[in-house]
Amino acid sequence: MKYPLAEHERENITSKTGRKFNDITLDEVMKDHIAPDDIKISKDILKAQGQVAMEADNAPMEKNFERAAELVDVPDEVILKMYDKLRPNRSTKLELVMMAQELLEKYNAKNCARLVMEAAEVYEKRGILL
Q: What is the DSSP string of 1-19?
């Protein structure tokens, strides 16, 4: 895929629900034909953006897109809870380990789980756990 995707790959872009990018218009929104999940990005497009990053020799950005793709199927309330728990002095190590386990076992988000585990280790070393 050629970057920027919205400019060069419009016909290949789909939302989380499979709706085509070109079908998401203000007119369709005003007619109530577009649901909130229809405007959420799909795993495939996040992975494609990751591939663009990798081709540009930006491995850290590719990893960010990979983790983002894993989070597509994670409910918003779980993501918000994770964001809050990852702030310094907001969690115990056990809470972070349990969050990582949930990400891995319930949502198959192995890279996100790994990131949470790394955070737990770093927070422990820095003394910023509850």
A: -PSSHHHH-GGG-BBTT--
Do 96 and 123 contact (CB within 8 A), yes or no?
A: yes
- Rounded distance, CA 52 to CA 50, Å? 5
Pairwise CA distance, residues 71 & 48, whole Å? 15
pTM to 2 decimals?
0.84
- Which residue in the block uniquely carries the two structure tokens 């809050």? 84
User: How crowded is residue 4: how many other Cβ atoms within 10 Å of its Cβ?
Assistant: 10
* Backbone phi and psi for residue 68, each to the nearest 5 degrees, phi listed first: -60, -40
With b for 16 or more beta-carbon neighbours within 10 A and e for fewer, the 95-130 pattern comes to ebeebbebbbeebebebbbebbbebbeebeeeeebe
Q: Which residue is associated with the tokens 């728990």?
A: 85
pLDDT in tens, 1-51: 778 888 888 888 999 999 999 999 999 999 999 999 999 999 999 999 999
Rounding to the nearest 10 degrees, give the CA dihedral for residues 56, 40, 19, 9: -20
Q: Which residues contact 37 (CB under 8 A, 6 or more apart)?
A: 15, 16, 17
